[in-house]
Amino acid sequence: MDDDLPESVKKCLDILEENVEILANLEYDLEDEKEDELIPDMELHNLYDMTEDVAESAKLKRAESNFTRRQAEDSL
């Protein structure tokens, strides 16, 4: 019976980790929808700048997600 406990705890931690990632992704998706905005007649340099901003934002969100995941792992 004692051998089953660590395996059960590991399964619970795995499920928790999956759910934390899903919730974090949902939060980011909702925030992204708030930021979506159409701007007509944009110049090419504006589109280039926006592309760079999106790439940087994606990197930051990925870093935040990884940080949150590590914090959740450390607290358990």
Q: For the terminal residues, how far apart are their CA atoms?
A: 22 Å
- Report the average pLDDT across residues: 79
Shape: elongated
Number of helices: 2
What does the radius of gyration come to?
19 Å
Low-confidence stretches: none
What's the order of the H and E elements?
HH
Structural class: mainly alpha
Strand segment tally: 0
β-strand amount? under 5%
Main sheet summary: none
Can you offer a commentary on this structure?
- This protein is an all-alpha fold.
- 84% of the residues lie in helices and 0% in strands.
- Helix 1 (4-35) runs antiparallel to helix 2.
- The protein is elongated and about 65 Å long.
Can you tag this structure with a few keywords?
mainly alpha
In short:
This protein is an all-alpha fold and 76 residues long.
Describe how the helices and strands are arranged.
Elements: H1 4-35, H2 44-75
Helix pairs in contact: 1-2
